[in-house]
Specification:
Number of strands: 0
Helix content: 55-70%
Number of helices: 5
Radius of gyration: 18 Å
Length: about 120
């Protein structure tokens, strides 16, 4: 049984939820905006995209000045420790065992970091 839990603050949850929701909605409204310059679909897509960019800006600010768990300084893809933990995680996955790491550590952290790039 896995008892390893992660806890994010309420603003961090709000930012990540906003990124997901508005990113998906902006993507889904792109087709209607393409064929309707200046119409409702175009404006909806534009405002959804602007709101998404606001959430991206909040995330970047949080990455530099937010809580300790949200900071970019805690997750470096170029550290030897990150790559060592990632290799250990891959070896463990080949044996069908789930790694138990902290936030932004090991293989999960590496995937998250390169997802941001």
């Amino acid at each position: 049984m896995n008892t390893f839990t992660h806890s994010y603050s309420l603003p961090a949850k709000f930012i990540h939820m906003g990124l997901a929701v508005f990113g998906i909605l902006a993507y889904l409204t792109a087709e209607g905006a393409e064929h309707n310059d200046g119409g409702f679909e175009y404006l909806l897509h534009a405002y959804l995209g602007l709101t998404l960019m606001a959430f991206v800006l909040f995330r970047v600010v949080g990455g530099f000045a937010g809580s300790q768990k949200m900071r970019f300084s805690n997750c470096s893809p170029f550290s030897r420790l990150q790559w060592t933990q990632s290799i250990e995680d891959i070896k463990g996955l080949t044996k069908f065992s789930m790694p138990e790491r902290g936030m932004h550590e090991g293989l999960a952290g590496l995937v998250q970091i390169f997802g941001l790039i």
